[in-house]
Structure to design on (610 residues):
């Protein structure tokens, strides 16, 4: 039975840990039992207040019919509203004091009152949590972790006040960070792993003239999405890149020389997170794609910032690092908060943040679910302050990532596209993020014709296992399920889950500059920054009119006021897990969402709101 939104966010370990958790997390191996006399810092992330009301709070500022539309909250208001209650703090504190017989000062409450930490011996932790602790080794040489993959148990009166305890069953690590690399399961540009073919510079002009079905340029995108845009407000927007995804200014200039001369010698403003540096050796594919598309579409009148998120420790989840940099209170509740996060709420917030990565499969797993639910709640809290998060929906169709992982009956994920249940991906399936699927121009078609879903790779889409369907998409999604969804065996996908993507944009074959030459590139990792650019342009118009940025846009996009703002994509599907996946259909579908944007209509619809 699917949980309500409030129950999902108030998910506790008591019903899920213990004997039910037995598998060692992928990428890790047991080395030995942990020394019972060694000490570990146990951290208890406390349940936040009012999370069951998060969706209603967001609808109050994001529903076009609300009298409070656009009246975003201040960070201080968000912090105060969701602060753990005194009862929660007292219950956990009293239990620890009684069980451990520790002095008051040894049980520490974080400054934001959302985490309790106590240093205990492994023997004490095992007794306290009824667990067995081991030392594990990761795939990166020298990467060791202490944890209890077999699960742990909290007393019932305590469990209702604790989201999760660390270190226990959660293992962040390299396999959670997906990027443009064959070993890290990217949800990014199709064809990159096999090596993109170079386009000789002297042939670029003739290739572009051959049509947008063979070479997608900025002019193609402008024509496809009615994107006639001259910036006025100079708003700030960002693209997020992670770890070794970097760009070269020379590649930007090569691209701008051909497609956007007024951006020559311009680069994005760097916002370094955990020491992230784009001027080091690394993969040029993703950052080049994202930055060239956004700067090319928006022009010099819009500021583009780059969150360059490093991963100084393999135990750090890049999602946590980005969220903590935006909201200092999240530093404490992150499950790996003691493992090196130093940028805590000290980075500037921008209006639109584009993310072309995935970090976790959306499956019910005690080692993952409470953490990703906490992360999704944080995206929602940031959206309350007026931020728009846009993310790629993935390139694996109804399977997870380009490794095509499908869920087996025993609860394991198996790669290679085996028969099994469909697997959504995060962060795209978080309801507080706008997920973007990929489309392409039909062979021989013009930009006056509606695109189809991509055939060069299956665009990601489906239904969440961790998050129920939100009210704002209920009618559109139910229409698809009732009239167009295939009749798969029960359990193949969660019909009551949050459905994604929300929208779509071109994902293949885009022309970008990379490594001193031009290449074909794409994937939903291109679709996300394209749509984010359109949202940024909408913000520009609203800010110039004296109105607020759009913030959380999903309720508006699904409303009647925006019915004509999308080009309905009705051709294509997203196969996976030895099925045809879902077919595109009139209205919303799990391949292309509501369709591709018509910028002018989207802008005018948002300008009509308060």
């Amino acid at each position: 039975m699917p949980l309500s939104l409030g129950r999902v966010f108030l998910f506790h370990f008591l019903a899920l840990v213990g004997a039910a958790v037995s598998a060692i997390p992928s990428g890790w191996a047991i080395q030995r039992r942990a020394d019972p006399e060694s000490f570990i810092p146990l951290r208890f992330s406390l349940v936040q207040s009012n999370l069951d009301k998060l969706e209603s709070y967001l609808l109050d500022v994001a529903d076009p019919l609300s009298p409070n539309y656009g009246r975003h909250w201040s960070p201080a208001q968000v912090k105060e509203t969701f602060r753990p209650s005194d009862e929660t703090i007292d219950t956990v504190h009293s239990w620890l004091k009684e069980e451990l017989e520790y002095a008051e000062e040894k049980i520490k409450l974080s400054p934001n009152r959302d985490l309790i930490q106590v240093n205990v011996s492994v023997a004490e932790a095992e007794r306290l949590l009824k667990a067995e602790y081991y030392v594990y080794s990761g795939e990166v040489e020298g990467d060791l972790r202490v944890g209890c993959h077999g699960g742990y148990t909290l007393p019932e009166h305590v469990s209702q006040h604790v989201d999760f305890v660390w270190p226990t069953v959660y293992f962040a690590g390299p396999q959670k960070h997906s990027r443009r690399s064959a070993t890290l399961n990217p949800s990014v540009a199709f064809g990159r792993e096999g090596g993109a073919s170079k386009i000789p510079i002297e042939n670029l002009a003739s290739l572009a003239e051959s049509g947008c079905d063979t070479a997608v340029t900025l002019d193609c995108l402008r024509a496809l999405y009615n994107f006639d845009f001259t910036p006025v407000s100079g708003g700030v927007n960002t693209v997020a890149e992670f770890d070794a995804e970097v760009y070269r200014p020379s590649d930007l200039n090569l691209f701008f020389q051909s497609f956007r001369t007024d951006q020559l010698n311009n680069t994005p403003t760097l916002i370094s997170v955990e020491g992230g540096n784009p001027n080091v050796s690394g993969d040029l594919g993703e950052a080049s794609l994202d930055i060239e598309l956004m700067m090319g579409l928006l022009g010099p009148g819009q500021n583009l910032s780059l969150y360059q998120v490093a991963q100084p420790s393999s135990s750090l989840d890049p999602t946590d690092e980005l969220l903590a940099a935006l909201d200092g209170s999240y530093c404490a509740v992150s499950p790996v908060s003691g493992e090196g996060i130093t940028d805590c709420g000290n980075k500037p917030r921008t209006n639109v943040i584009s993310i072309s990565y995935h970090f976790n499969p959306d499956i019910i797993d005690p080692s993952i679910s409470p953490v990703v639910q906490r992360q999704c709640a944080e995206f929602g809290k940031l959206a309350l302050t007026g931020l728009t998060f846009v993310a790629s929906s993935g390139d694996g169709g109804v399977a997870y990532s380009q490794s095509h992982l499908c869920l087996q009956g025993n609860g394991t994920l198996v790669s290679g596209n085996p028969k099994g249940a469909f697997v959504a991906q995060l962060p795209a399936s978080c309801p507080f993020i706008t997920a973007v699927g990929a489309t392409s121009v039909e062979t021989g078609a013009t930009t006056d014709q509606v695109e189809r879903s991509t055939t060069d790779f299956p665009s990601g889409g489906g239904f969440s296992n961790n998050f129920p369907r939100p009210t704002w998409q209920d009618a559109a999604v139910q229409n698809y399920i009732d009239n167009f969804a295939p009749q798969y065996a029960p359990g193949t996908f969660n019909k009551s889950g949050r459905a994604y993507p929300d929208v779509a944009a071109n994902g293949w074959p885009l022309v970008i500059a990379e490594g001193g030459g031009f290449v074909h590139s794409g994937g939903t990792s291109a679709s996300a920054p394209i749509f984010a650019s359109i949202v940024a342009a909408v913000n520009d118009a609203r800010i110039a009119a004296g109105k607020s940025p759009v913030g959380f846009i999903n309720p508006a996009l699904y409303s009647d006021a925006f019915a004509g703002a999308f080009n309905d994509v009705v051709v294509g599907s997203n196969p996976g897990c030895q099925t045809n996946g879902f077919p595109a259909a009139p209205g919303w579908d799990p391949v292309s969402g509501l369709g591709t944007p018509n910028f002018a209509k989207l802008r005018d619809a948002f300008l009509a709101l308060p």
Summary: Residues 153 and 544 are 54 Å apart (CA to CA). Residues 524-544 form the longest helix (21 residues).
